[in-house]
Design a protein that fits this description.
Elements lengths: L1 E7 L12 E4 L25 E4 L6 E6 L11 E18 L7 E15 L7 E7 L9 E4 L6 E12 L6 E26 L20 E4 L3 E6 L11 E18 L7 E15 L6 E7 L9 E4 L11 E8 L5 E23 L1 E8 L2 E2 L13 E3 L7 E4 L10 E4 L1
Antiparallel strand pairs: 1-19, 2-10, 3-5, 4-5, 5-10, 6-9, 6-10, 7-8, 7-10, 11-13, 12-13, 13-18, 14-17, 14-18, 15-16, 15-18, 19-20, 19-21, 22-23
Length: 405
């Protein structure tokens, strides 16, 4: 099958902030990982899970508590109780995992009238998650460092997994301890690395030009955060660059987390006032973004071919490029010029790229009549974009269209 690449530029306004990860709720998706009766919404038995305890049968209890849950909305929870300091466990299987992907497991837990065994290092009320059916990995909960007769209200725990197998296990333990343990809302979610491009403090709200900014000048010039001027007029701030003489002045910040080969639109709001430029090549009030630190690539702004003095109201300027590196450099220049330049809201917007299969007759269902998109379309954009079949159609003939969000 041939493939036709359709470039769909989706101007989603991305929050350009540092961030390590972004999470999608895979447990709610078809064919995603599951953990069985994870919210204990049914007041039936715990389900087809493994459970075990030592000691006599009247020394422990386990089941669905229809009167207690962490949300207080009338749903239920799993309750385990030991009347003597025995070993007690319930095991759930996490199925549908994919090797090589990352996941987040999360759970809510609560204990009451808890008596640990002080000399037993394994004593506690806790959950482990891992590849073995008897796993002790990723321990979450309380150990034998708690005082006797301790109680803790609902507490949230999470851990991260990188499984090598399609099945992992959740082991709930009330171990060498007396008391009650409640468990609610176990979730398994796929975690995707954050591939949003990052420009530190792109709207200058932090008022800090020492955080990541490099600057250089060869004349009388200044830079500051202007707390009285911004492009929206909503009371936020902007960068103000002023040259008192016709000199060279540059400020540089790194944009990180770009994806090599992906197309981006770089944009910035710019406002020049009383800018006088020399006749030198390169003179102007402009911004460049490129893969080298001292780049003059992808220029937006004004050169010395405009009428002077240059004064403009806030103007959105844009440049589109294909990333050749994961780090790009943004250079703001008031170059061979005097005057003032304000800059606000630096943005990098990735383009969505989606592939549709074709055959010798052309596009496969190019009119989207089948109401099926996934399976023939390959999502080439992993920044939280959504594509789906839509009932909207420009022909009004009962076919549909592709909706990209």
């Amino acid at each position: 099958m041939k493939k036709l690449r359709l470039l769909l530029t989706v101007f989603c306004i991305l929050a350009l902030c540092v961030a390590t990860f972004t999470v999608s709720t895979a447990s709610a998706e078809a064919n995603g990982p599951t953990i069985g009766n994870t919210t204990f919404a049914s007041d039936s038995e715990i389900g087809s899970v493994f459970s075990w305890a030592d000691g006599s049968s009247d020394a422990h209890q386990r089941g669905i508590d229809t009167t207690t849950d962490h949300t207080g909305d009338g749903s239920y929870s799993l309750k385990m109780t030991n009347f003597a300091a025995h070993h007690h466990m319930v095991r759930f299987a996490i199925t549908g995992l994919t090797a090589g992907k990352d996941y987040k497991f999360s759970v809510w837990m609560k204990i009451e009238d808890f008596f640990p065994a002080p000399g037993d290092g394994g004593s506690g009320a806790y959950i482990n998650v891992g590849a073995s059916q008897d796993t002790y990995s990723n321990k979450m909960g309380w150990g034998n460092d708690l005082e006797e007769n301790s109680s803790r209200d609902w507490t949230y725990y999470e851990c991260f997994l990188s499984p090598e197998e399609d099945t992992n296990y959740v082991v709930v333990r009330l171990w060498s301890a007396i008391g009650s343990l409640w468990v609610d809302d176990m979730k398994i979610e796929e975690v995707k690395p954050n591939t949003d491009p990052i420009i530190p403090d792109a709207s200058f709200a932090a008022q800090d030009l020492d955080a990541g900014w490099w600057s250089w000048k060869d004349g009388t010039a200044s830079k500051t955060i202007d707390t009285t001027m911004d492009k929206t007029g909503d009371g936020s701030y902007s960068l103000k660059v002023t040259n008192e003489t016709q000199c060279h002045h540059v400020l540089r910040i790194e944009a990180t987390n770009l994806v090599v080969g992906m197309d981006y639109t770089f944009s910035a709001w710019m406002k020049p006032e009383n800018v006088y430029m020399k006749s030198d090549a390169g003179a102007g009030a402009y911004i460049n973004i490129g893969a080298s630190a001292d780049n003059y690539s992808n220029q937006i702004g004004w050169g010395n071919d405009v009428e002077q003095p240059l004064t403009r109201d806030w103007d959105l300027r844009e440049a589109t490029f294909t990333a050749s590196a994961t780090t790009y450099y943004i250079n703001i220049r008031l170059w061979s010029a005097s005057g003032t330049l304000w800059v606000d809201d630096l943005k990098l917007t990735p383009h969505a790229v989606i592939e549709l299969e074709t055959d010798d007759a052309g596009l496969v269902d190019g009119k989207f009549a089948s109401q099926s998109v996934k399976g023939r379309w390959k999502d080439g954009w992993k920044n939280g974009g959504l594509y789906e079949w839509s009932t909207e159609s420009h022909t009004k003939d009962g076919t549909g269209s592709l909706k990209v969000t």
